[in-house]
Amino acid sequence: MNKNRKILLIFAVIVTAVLVPIIIFNVRAPVIIVTEQSLTRLYGEDRIRRESLYSSFRLFRPVKTVIVANDAGDDIVPHAVSDVSLQPYCVLFPLRFARSAAIYQEQNPETRIIILKGNYPGEMDLSYGRQVDFFVYRTDLEADFFKAGFVAAALAAEAALVAETEGNNGGIAVFMENRQFSHFGTLARDAFIRGVNRQFEINNMYGNHPVISFYTSFHEYTGAEVLSCVVVAGSGYEYFERKDGVPVIFYSWLDTSLAPSNVVAVIDDSPWAQVIQAVTLVSAGDRDGKISSKFTILNNRNINLRKIIKID
Question: Which of 139, 162, 195 is a domain's end point?
Answer without folding.
Answer: 139
